[in-house]
Design a protein that fits this description.
- It is a single chain.
- The chain has 258 residues and is mainly alpha-helical.
- It has one domain.
- Helix content is 81%, strand content 0%.
- The protein is built from eleven helices and no strands.
- Helix 3 crosses helix 8, helix 3 packs antiparallel against helix 11 and helix 4 packs across helix 11.
Length: 258
Amino acid sequence: MVDIFLIKLMVSVALVVLLSIITEHISPRISGMISGLPTGTAIILFFIGLEQGAGFAKSTSVYNLAGITSMQIFLYGYYFASKRANRFRIIISAFGALIPFSVALILLKQIHFNVFTALIPSIGTLILFSYLYKKTPDSRIKKPIKFSLTVLLARAIVASSIILLITELARLVGPEWTGLFSSIPTTVFPLLIIIHHSYGKDHIHTIIKNLTGTLPTLALYCLAVFFAYPLLGVYWGTAIAYGTTAIYLMVFFFVFRN
């Protein structure tokens, strides 16, 4: 158990730091696209599969698929609030994301989803929010700030704490709540806060806009876990799931490379 706990922690920390470096030194647009990959979700489903079994992870993936809806509501809440907040902009933006996200979780929990019906709200909201972000311009960080080790660790601790909490509580709350809780953008949320604080709202809008375009990878990943984990087990099922999302992402980059 100690080894698994440490692996969860190290992987979570590495992902947050990597996304931060990409955003600051390459492009918020590329970071947004990469952030759409099933990073936190993949970690959660993988370790739930190891600890609770492939069947539990399969059930969790259904509500994680439905939870893509609440994730998009979270992101748009942050986007919307940050456009209007001046004073206490980060606090207001964070609450603007967390409050509607929490409401969405409660509403989604009232619905009994299967793997197919879970796609309906996720696809519908994906089309809606993609349209709402359509006129948002891409921005680039010209003079990146060199962050201290303390700041990097603070980001990583937020993300890893959420991932560890969800995986540890899985056996207590069941697959439905686990799947919905894991829809919170664990690696993206601390990234949004630090980029918002350091560079302003335009750069986080770029991240959110481009992240939304790659969210189908998360849906594909959940579908792959649903079908592959019971048949192939956690390790091979994870490989198949990542292979599926990698193919989509390559096509996405090719089509939208400009």
